[in-house]
Amino acid sequence: MNPNTEQALQPQLSVRDLEVHYGPVKAVKGISFDLMPGRITTLVGANGAGKSTTLLALSGLVKKQATALQFNGRDIRNLKPHQLVASGLVQVAEGRATLTRLTVRENLQLGAYTRKDSAAAQAADLEHIYQLFPRLKERDGGLAGNLSGGEQQMLAIGRALMAKPSVLLLDEPSMGLAPIIVQDIFRTLQSINQTGLTIFLVEQNVRQALKISDYAYVLETGNIVLEGSGRSLLGNDKIQQAYLGG
Ligand SMILES: Nc1ncnc2c1ncn2[C@@H]1O[C@H](COP(=O)(O)OP(=O)(O)OP(=O)(O)O)[C@@H](O)[C@H]1O
Ligand SMILES: [Mg+2]
């Protein structure tokens, strides 16, 4: 095996035995998973399975235990939320959490709060995001509160991209959006991924999510019960019955 191949097989984020408790409630019960660089990995599962809790743990927003949390070769178990963002692990805020009384541009600029590079570099990235989301560019000086639900979700993604992530975490970006907008969001995630960004997606929209996923894990009451390529899980009988109404 040549050294490049070996490099490509290293996970970018490696999670071992992650546990989260809310008081006496064990929400995540010692799960292990990997995010491979440049891939879309998805965590699917029913209501209350522990999906959001897993993301909150990765973002440093809930107390957790793990035997390992390695991100780009670094132990991130003790990093604070802003340090995780600065290191490149960035969670997209909920669409409705855009700052409605700020303009679209101001929301995007806020995404760069942990960056220490030049204003010029940040302005260039903002232009890049406007190319990705022409609709946001049109609304540049308008209040975020006047955007539609789908546009606010795009803005939330754009704001996360302004932090220059190497891994993007998303918690149900399709929630509450019309099917046609959902398609748009998933297409956007694919095109962001094609620029080399690693994506970790949490979804209840199992069919659509598996379609765009290189790899997926199924979470049930705090445990990973199944994993495989998106394609293999789409064809799996258990998944068909439990999540795809088959
Ligand atoms: N702040 C909290 N305090 C106590 N229990 C919580 C808290 N947040 C979540 N839980 C519980 O932890 C478990 C996992 O919740 P979590 O929100 O992670 O699930 P989820 O898979 O994201 O569900 P959903 O699909 O509804 O978003 C559930 O039993 C939930 O009731
Ligand atoms: Mg959730």
Automatic annotation (TrEMBL):
<keyword id="KW-0547">Nucleotide-binding</keyword>
<dbReference type="GO" id="GO:0015807">
    <property type="term" value="P:L-amino acid transport"/>
</dbReference>
<keyword id="KW-0067">ATP-binding</keyword>
<dbReference type="GO" id="GO:0005524">
    <property type="term" value="F:ATP binding"/>
</dbReference>
<keyword id="KW-0472">Membrane</keyword>
<comment type="similarity">
    <text>Belongs to the ABC transporter superfamily.</text>
</comment>
<dbReference type="GO" id="GO:0016887">
    <property type="term" value="F:ATP hydrolysis activity"/>
</dbReference>
<dbReference type="InterPro" id="IPR003593">
    <property type="entry name" value="AAA+_ATPase"/>
</dbReference>
<dbReference type="InterPro" id="IPR017871">
    <property type="entry name" value="ABC_transporter-like_CS"/>
</dbReference>
<keyword id="KW-0813">Transport</keyword>
<dbReference type="InterPro" id="IPR003439">
    <property type="entry name" value="ABC_transporter-like_ATP-bd"/>
</dbReference>
<protein>
    <submittedName>
        <fullName>ABC transporter ATP-binding protein</fullName>
    </submittedName>
</protein>
<feature type="domain" description="ABC transporter">
    <location>
        <begin position="13"/>
        <end position="246"/>
    </location>
</feature>
<dbReference type="InterPro" id="IPR052156">
    <property type="entry name" value="BCAA_Transport_ATP-bd_LivF"/>
</dbReference>
<keyword id="KW-0029">Amino-acid transport</keyword>
<dbReference type="Pfam" id="PF00005">
    <property type="entry name" value="ABC_tran"/>
</dbReference>
<dbReference type="InterPro" id="IPR027417">
    <property type="entry name" value="P-loop_NTPase"/>
</dbReference>
<dbReference type="GO" id="GO:0015658">
    <property type="term" value="F:branched-chain amino acid transmembrane transporter activity"/>
</dbReference>
<keyword id="KW-1003">Cell membrane</keyword>
